[in-house]
């Protein structure tokens, strides 16, 4: 056997198998052997961590293949992402996360080339990704939009938006619940509006508590929308805030209120100026009369 190096970074880069999935893979390898070759970059194991673990545990033989086209760890990450995006067993959440990771790597590379437009940088950027055997494959299109990310992950744009929200706002316990399938992506995105402590408590309560938490947040949003509708009516009636074709406010009522206050103050200022001018005229007239000599 080769001296294979297993790094924790690459081992943890893709979500691990569940206990049931790992057990099923182990049964398959024990019955049929390790049919798929492990992919290496030099001595570093890139693909096949679970197969390597099972074969090592039971002393079973396995094959390896070198990918000689990897130039950096970024190349390795992109290849791993593409491999898992093509697998049917990967969940929608995992595919969305992987596609977003791919976008980040590609954007970082683009910015690096822009900041260092040297021939060496351009050549590195133009380097084609590699297959498991080292043969070049066509460059992947850039993931510049949410729609492109959705196509790469084979999910909807709305789901991509929800996954982005979960990544930014969800507590670790809630993320774990999404990964395990205890809560749907859409429900998790709703629950992510709660404080981290409440998210963690809902995740600890299991599927039932997660469903109830999502329901509470949705009902709260409905109540806020009703209150918002009442504010809108007042804003239109008293502040003359314009609306669009759907009857939605085209300006923030708070901003409209401030503008109305400014307008009222400006009107009052104009009136005060007029009063001051009138008083000044009266004073000038009085002074003129006092200066004129009496005819008697």
What does the model show?
Strand 1 and strand 2 form a beta hairpin. With 296 residues, this protein is mostly helical. A 3-stranded mixed beta sheet has the order 2-1-3. Helix 10 packs across helix 12 (206-239) and helix 12 (206-239) runs parallel beside helix 13. It has 13 helices and 3 strands, in the order H-H-E-E-H-E-H-H-H-H-H-H-H-H-H-H. The chain has helices at residues 8-11, 19-32, 49-58, 73-85, 92-115, 119-126, 146-153, 157-169, 172-180, 185-191, 196-204, 206-239, 253-291; strands spanning 38-41, 44-47, 64-66. Mean pLDDT is 82; it is low at 128-133. It is elongated.
Secondary structure elements and their pairing?
Blueprint: H1 8-11, H2 19-32, E1 38-41, E2 44-47, H3 49-58, E3 64-66, H4 73-85, H5 92-115, H6 119-126, H7 146-153, H8 157-169, H9 172-180, H10 185-191, H11 196-204, H12 206-239, H13 253-291
Parallel strand pairs: 1-3
Antiparallel strand pairs: 1-2
- SS content category: mainly alpha
Lateral strand order in the biggest sheet: 2-1-3
- Which consecutive residue ranges, at least 5 long each, have pLDDT under 50? 128-133
Oligomer: single chain
Alpha-carbon Rg, integer = 33 Å
Order of helices and strands: HHEEHEHHHHHHHHHH
How would you state the average pLDDT, rounded?
A: 82
Instruction: Count all strands and give the number.
Output: 3
Strand percent estimate: under 5%
Dominant shape: elongated
């Amino acid at each position: 056997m080769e001296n294979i190096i297993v790094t924790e970074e690459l081992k943890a880069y893709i979500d691990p198998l569940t206990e049931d999935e790992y057990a099923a893979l182990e049964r398959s390898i024990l019955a049929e052997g390790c049919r798929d070759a492990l992919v290496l970059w030099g001595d570093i194991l890139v693909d096949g961590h679970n197969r390597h673990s099972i074969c090592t545990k039971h002393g079973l033989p396995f094959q390896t293949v070198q990918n000689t086209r990897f130039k950096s760890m970024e190349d390795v990450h992109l290849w791993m992402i593409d491999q898992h995006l093509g697998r049917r067993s990967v969940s929608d959440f995992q595919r969305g996360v992987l596609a977003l990771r791919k976008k980040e790597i590609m954007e970082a590379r683009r910015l690096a080339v822009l900041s260092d437009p040297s021939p060496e940088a351009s050549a590195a950027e133009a380097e084609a990704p590699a297959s498991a055997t080292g043969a070049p494959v066509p460059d992947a299109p850039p993931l510049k939009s949410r729609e492109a990310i959705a196509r790469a992950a084979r999910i909807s744009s709305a789901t991509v938006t929800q996954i982005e929200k979960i990544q930014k706002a969800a507590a670790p316990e809630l993320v774990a619940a999404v990964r395990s399938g205890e809560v749907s992506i859409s429900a998790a995105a709703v629950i992510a509006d709660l404080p981290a402590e409440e998210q963690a408590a809902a995740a600890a309560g299991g599927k039932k508590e997660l469903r109830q938490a999502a329901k509470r947040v949705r009902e709260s949003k409905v109540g806020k929308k009703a209150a918002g509708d009442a504010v809108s009516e007042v804003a239109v009636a008293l502040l003359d805030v314009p609306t669009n074709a759907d009857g939605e406010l085209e300006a923030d009522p708070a901003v409209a209120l401030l503008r109305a206050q400014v307008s009222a103050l400006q009107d009052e200022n104009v009136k005060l100026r007029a009063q001051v001018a009138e008083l000044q005229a009266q004073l000038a007239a009085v002074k003129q009369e006092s200066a004129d000599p009496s005819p008697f």
